[in-house]
Amino acid sequence: MLPLSLALPTGMSGAFGAGIALSLATIMALGPQNVHVMRMGLMRQHVLLTIATCALSDIVLIATGVLGLAHLGGLSDKLQGAMVGAGALFLLVYGWQAAQRFIRPITNTSPLDVASSSPTGPQVFSRKQAVASALAFSFLNPHAWLDTAVIIGTASLAYGQTGGIVFGAGAITGSLIWFCSLGLAVYLIGRRIGNANMWHWLDGMVAIMMWGTAAWLLVQLVN
């Protein structure tokens, strides 16, 4: 997160630029939402739909923070605890699914050319499943709420009512830039991938990351 003291000068253009900078600074970390976008891009499945869903979710979260949550003083302890618990459960399940794929034997068949029933083949998502997964990674992820609704919403208060809205618009623009760039990059990389070993180790990395994040969330919940 960028400290407010490093934000651009107060003003409409300054507020917009500061919103972009803060949004990019908070979203660029390799969290569950970004990993999901990367995986969908590498599999070349519903990439635009996934990007659009994640971006629209960020718009909702940022607007919630800028227009409401920041002025209400943040989330209540009970609501925050419920979100953290739900997010940890979701990450544990997703990590378990990735671990199941990781422990299966590797074949020399390209995962991009095999059916979804193949031991190393990528899961085939329907459009509804793609949207549901993207929504889950956006709204069941406490980090997404913290980065967008809380941090960006609170930072917008420094620019007043009108400037805060411009700041939020900048933050939304930063989110759109990031998701479009990330989705395009991994889609182009995915066109050149035909190695089952890459998918095998990617699933292992995803499982570790998801379980590690879930463990961290549960520790925060009990403390």
Structure characteristics:
75% helix; disordered N terminus; mainly alpha; 8 helices
User: What's the number of extended β-strand segments?
Assistant: 0
End-to-end Cα distance, whole Å, is 23 Å
Give the count of helical stretches.
8
Number of spatially distinct domains: 1
Shape: globular
Mean pLDDT: 74
Runs with pLDDT <50, length 5+? Answer: 1-10, 108-121
Class per helix and strand makeup: mainly alpha
Helix percentage range:
over 70%
Please explain how this structure is put together.
- It is built from eight helices and no strands.
- It has one domain (12-222).
- Mean pLDDT is 74; it is low at 1-10 and 108-121.
- It has helices spanning 12-27, 32-43, 47-72, 77-103, 127-139, 142-156, 160-190, 196-222.
- α3 (47-72) crosses α6.
- It is an all-alpha fold.
- The two termini are 23 Å apart.
What is the strand and helix layout of this fold?
Layout: H1 12-27, H2 32-43, H3 47-72, H4 77-103, H5 127-139, H6 142-156, H7 160-190, H8 196-222
Helix pairs in contact: 1-6, 1-7, 2-3, 2-5, 2-7, 3-5, 3-6, 3-7, 4-8, 6-7
Outline:
The protein is mostly helical. 75% of the residues lie in helices and 0% in strands.
